[in-house]
Amino acid sequence: MSSRSTPLGEFDLIERFFKTGADALRTNVDQGITLGIGDDCALLKRPTNEEIAITSDMLVEGRHFFADADPALLARKALAVNLSDLAAMGAKPLGFTLAIALPALDEAWLEAFSKGLFAIAKEHSCPLIGGDTTAGPLTISITAFGSIPVGKAIRRSGAKVGDDIWVSGMVGDARLTLAALRHEINLSSEDLQQIEHRMHQPTPRVELGVYLRDAASAALDVSDGLLGDLRHILKQSKVDAQIQLDQLPKSSVLKKQESSIQNLFAACGGDDYELCFTAPSSQQEKIQGISKSLNLPLTLIGKILPKKDGQARVYLLDASGALLSDSQAAPFLNSFDHFA
Amino acid sequence: MSSRSTPLGEFDLIERFFKTGADALRTNVDQGITLGIGDDCALLKRPTNEEIAITSDMLVEGRHFFADADPALLARKALAVNLSDLAAMGAKPLGFTLAIALPALDEAWLEAFSKGLFAIAKEHSCPLIGGDTTAGPLTISITAFGSIPVGKAIRRSGAKVGDDIWVSGMVGDARLTLAALRHEINLSSEDLQQIEHRMHQPTPRVELGVYLRDAASAALDVSDGLLGDLRHILKQSKVDAQIQLDQLPKSSVLKKQESSIQNLFAACGGDDYELCFTAPSSQQEKIQGISKSLNLPLTLIGKILPKKDGQARVYLLDASGALLSDSQAAPFLNSFDHFA
Asked: Per the count of CB atoms within 10 A, which of A199, A287, A310, B256 is most buried?
């Protein structure tokens, strides 16, 4: 938490845009932050019957967002993707640090960015407690902290043979938005308007994560595409899975696309930030109750199967329940690779 | 903690270079890391009588290091600057997360980087517990965690009028190395060799920080130049200070430079990562004892004075104890600004 500074330079900027907002937020929350921004470290104190969940995500210009991205939405998303990781463990947000590299001191940009940041921070009672600012290519690195009763964290390794596989919300709209922005697919402006918030303003499923502590056997958040992410659960739980492609929850806009695009975007499109989780069938009623309480669709999309071999296998079924042929399944097997 | 991946791409890389080293280290330490790399979050569990210190620092290519920097030294430094922040609070390292943007998948670079990283992590029993990898301009963002008994953290706000001001080790050599590498100053290769580790491999004063819990009234680590950093203590403690320039601890190599350069580099050169701290005069004997135990020079360089006005004032004294004139003091008043 260094702050290379002159009186009228960087340090003032940090004070003005970040510390003030952080202090304002801290007065509204009491979650064990005994010292916030302004010292060498922040200090956090939690009871012994809790574990602290810790996650870090970095967003880079040109890779995760366009250079002209709305700074307020960008700030929201940078925190949202970290809150989504907390949600996937069942953790309740406690606070976060922000390390940011900025190409220039653009006050209007910083004001919009910090407003967006503190808005989502307030929605989730998750104060900014420290960080670092430097000059450099625009890069946003957030580390977020959450609390969870000891032993209640939902790990990726807990899926059991016979468990149901669920996904929250809708999947594929962020990918469809990207395709429209890249002019790969034509969408009417009404349709685009209806779904683009799914790419620019993902909703971290924080409340759902807390409810799932007592229902799910494994969970993760879908950031890189449902099937690719599901494989992390399969690998760590040492199981396989079958997924009914036509069961994937899709928006009305996505449903207007041809069927192959629908399934591909829903199954493999990134940036959904929904939770994919497994649970014993005995939990179906409870899960439907959670869905009702949160007014959030939770959809049963498949089953956990015994492991066949060293691979983490996902068997894809069509609407009739028949297994897709290898050539039909091939397009679904490639997930996103940052370096590809 | 996302991990966009294909089986042979990024995820394998993370496993190979980071998870393996992290797992190897975790078997040697038991500090409440109940879950490490590989899930949505890491989990940390600590006793109620402790606070957790949290700090984030980001290093950017071209700003904090040269493009051809030795990856092992770079990794060491990236963790060292965070450990230095923990030290400045008196915290004992618990673990860290690493978010890194890489321009390419260069295996040799990654191997050297991860070796350097795990070497310093092991020296300080500070395991890697999570993080993120992405493509992008080389940027290293670390968040480190430390433990400290409740109420024992050394804050910047604790300096009192009459306290002594101390600094550990030597100051100015990192700045002198930079001047030599930039050909602003000519150094013999022997002299350069003797001091360049001070720029490339700063030593975080972790043990000193723990000892100072019971001696210091305020502390911070000197990353941006002694005088500029000291002002953060003055501002937060609402006091002024006097510093005896000729008392600043300098290496024999720095002492070969002309006197104005000596004092300027020692007082304002960045990247020292020494601890500057204040303590009541009653602690002098104890502090000298700590210096002896650690075999580390601790030098009394000034005094805390009553606050005169709204500024955080540092009065500079020459060897005779006389106040420097305004024009003599002017070169010392500008600290480093990332955006200048």
From this structure: A199
Which strand (E) or helix (H) includes residue A111? helix A107-123
Query: Of B126, B46, B48, nearest to B85 (Cα)?
Result: B126
Neighbours of B194 (CB within 10 A): 16
Strand, coil or helix: B285: helix
Identify the pLDDT of residue B328: 87
Distance CA A245, CA A250 (A): 11
Interatomic CA distance for residues B110 and B93, integer angstroms: 24
Tens of pLDDT, residue by residue over B110-124, are: 999 999 999 999 999
Is it the case that residue B190 has pLDDT exceeding 90?
yes
Average pLDDT over residues B262-285: 95
Helix (H, G, I), strand (E, B) or coil at B46: coil
List beta partners, residue B53: A43, B146
A77: which residues sit within 8 A by CB, 6+ positions away? Answer: A59, A65, A200, A201, A202
- Find how far residue A246's CA is from the centre of its chain: 23
Q: Does B156 contact A50 at a Cβ distance shorter than 8 Å?
A: no
CB-CB contact of A73 with A133 (8 Å): no
pLDDT band at A2 (very low <50, low <70, confident <90, very high): very low
Give burial (CB, 10 Å; 0-12/13-18/19+) of B58: buried
Residues A302-315: tens digit of each pLDDT: 999 999 988 889 99
**Mutate which of A12, A16, A35, A41 to disrupt the B interface (most B C-beta within 10 Å)?**
A41
Per residue in A24-43, pLDDT (tens digit) is: 666 555 678 888 888 999 99
How many angstroms away from the CA of A15 is the closest CA of chain B? 12
Give the length of chain B: 340
Pairing of strands A314-317, A274-279: unpaired
Query: By C-alpha distance, which of B24, B254, B186, B249 is closest to B118?
Result: B24
Taking contacts as CB-CB distances below 8 angstroms, the residues of chain B near A56 are 1, 97-99, 130-132, 141, 143
Q: What is the per-residue pLDDT across B153-165, written as a single tens digit (0 to 9) for each?
A: 999 999 999 999 9
Chain B residues 218-237 within an 8 A CB cutoff of chain A: 219-221, 223-224, 228, 232, 236
**Total-model pTM:** 0.91
Q: How many CB atoms lie within 10 A of CB B69?
A: 16
Residues 275-304 of B with CB under 8 A from A: none
Q: Element (H or E) spanning A84, and its range?
A: helix A71-89
Question: How many other CB atoms are found less than 10 A from the CB of residue B219?
Answer: 31
